[in-house]
Amino acid sequence: MRFTLEMKLKDIMATNPKTAEAMQELGLHCLGCSFSVNETLANAAQMHNLDPNILLEKVNSVEQGEMSLEAAAKAQPPGSILQMDKKTYSIAPHIPAGVVTPEILRKIADVSEKYHAQALKVTSAQRIAIVGLKPEDVPKVWEELGMDPGHAVGLCVRSVKVCPGDTFCKRGLQETLALGMEIDKLYHGMELPSKFKIGVAGCPNKCTDAASVDLGLMGTSKGYHLYVGGNGGVKPRQGNILLENLQREQILPVVDAVVSFYKENAKPQERIGRLIDRIGIDGLHEFAEKARH
Questions:
Q1: What pLDDT, in 10s, does the model give residues 116-131?
Q2: Nearest to 195 by CA among 176, 183, 213, 207
């Protein structure tokens, strides 16, 4: 069997475990990470600044065999990201809606101190990254935290950023926290054609970037506006307003319609904004409008 650039790393290694050694030789040291192994070979090449055809030729040239003990030992600890020094790792526990209790904060601080983390970093995705862990300590840190990994990388629903809404913020026009947590519970980590970010904002200030993420909800005095197709990065794109003044009970069916439409129509690694640029927004609008009623 010949591998293709569209195949996921986990499927390639399942077919021929010995390919792990070849990929590690080219700098792919994240083969123990559940997020990274869900990437396609093409996306992995892009992330590691490799020529995809060279990587493809390399894995296709490997004889069938088992992964060596050395390669297995070098595999990245589950739920971690290799740091700049190529020796230590960071982890980002999942914190739904960015809401955390004092008890959880103390646990994160205590465990980080116990295992000599270099830093704690509050991320733009409302997580707390524990930075600079030794690879042998990562599994123990996860066990003692008792928390789930946040899907910080991979072709999936990444973050669901949520503002305080009318629960705490004087400018909040609509409820956001319960809504955001419900969306997070339904979609966080769901595999999709490309990365997918969600923002829930309680007013037009859009503090959670509702107009510049793949799917955003913005509170108004009459309900919620739904944005789709925004993204940052090298080629930023402003989101399109898909529907206006949604009522609370309409939101989850409409969000599900948008995610389903994207999943069915996008090409591999195509963000929803690029899908809209390619096929137009009318089909998505019609599909979402039906779910509204």
A1: 999 999 999 999 999 9
A2: 213
The model's confidence at residue 155, banded by pLDDT at 50, 70 and 90, is: confident
Q: Six-digit token pair at 156?
A: 């999936």
Which residues are within 8 A (CB) of 196 and not within 5 positions of it... i.e. 6 or more apart?
156, 157, 158, 190, 214, 215, 259, 262, 271, 272
Q: Which residues of 44-77 are buried (b: 16+ CB within 10 A; e: fewer)?
A: bbeeeebeeeebbeebeebeeeebeeebeeebbb
Query: For the whole prediction, is pTM greater than 0.90?
Result: no
Encoded tokens for 20 = 């792990």
Whichever domain contains 276, its CATH number is: 3.30.413.10
Residues 205 and 283 in one domain: yes
Length of the chain: 293
DSSP β-bridge partners for residue 247: none
Domain that holds residue 137: 81-145
Residue 288 falls inside a structural domain: yes
Q: Mark whether 178 and 284 lie in a shared domain.
A: yes
Residues 53 and 118 placed together within one structural domain of the fold: no
Number of domains in the chain: 3
Is 140 a domain residue?
yes
Query: Is 264 in contact with 221 (CB distance < 8 Å)?
Result: no
Domain co-membership, 273 together with 200: yes
Cα gap 20→37, rounded to integer Å: 11
pLDDT at 157 over 90: yes
Query: Quick check: helix, strand or coil at residue 130?
Result: strand
Residue pointed to by tokens 């309680």: 202
Is the C-alpha dihedral spanning 29, 21, 65, 44 positive or negative?
positive
Residue identified by tokens 């892009």 is: 46
Residue type, 203: C
Helix (H, G, I), strand (E, B) or coil at 240: strand
Domain harbouring 102, CATH code: 3.30.70
